[in-house]
Amino acid sequence: MTHRSRSRPRRQLAVALALLAVLVAACDPASSTALVAQGLEPQADGWRGLPLDRERTMPDVTLSTTDGDPVALDEAFLGTPTLLFFGYTSCPDICPVHLASIASAMDTARVRYDALDVVFVSVDPERDTPQRIEEFLANFDRRMVGLTGELDVVEDALTQLDLPGPVVEGPDPRGEGDLIGHPAQVIGFDAQGRALRVWPFGARRADWVADLPRIVEEWSS
Asked: Which top CATH class is 49-219?
């Protein structure tokens, strides 16, 4: 399955990092699920990501790429560690902060996208057309994988991970429709599709720089 472009959009990444700096400096996130990005304390084992309290696996659902190809989520990313994040392109805070931090850390830590999948699943399929998802991810790195699907399928995936479904929180003060509350953590899966750690909103670029090489080294086999 080919789901990556090989060119690194450095210019787009620079724009994303500038946006990240603005968002982190703002202390009044628009979404009630947002927190100030303050970094994670190292765990006893040195990881910044938090261990899960019980076993979870990649959800057994079928979504679609931005090209319209079906993707069996529990099969498509086997063999490679995966970072999975649920969000939406109109998100004012959580989504751009997470994705910009990961994209920058991938570059700094020299972790290749053919060694680690970064997957974004839209919780707002009504507004998030394939083109809109592609344009959104291009602000960070085109090699990130954008997926979409019917809302009930996305909610099923979230339920399988013991995560809440998206909730409309009210009008976006920017005039871009409604704000949507959604899970704020990135979930890390090993090459066998087992969820091992989560990075809540608050994880910073330095946390990812520390953890990304370990993900590839320890979760790839």
From this structure: alpha beta
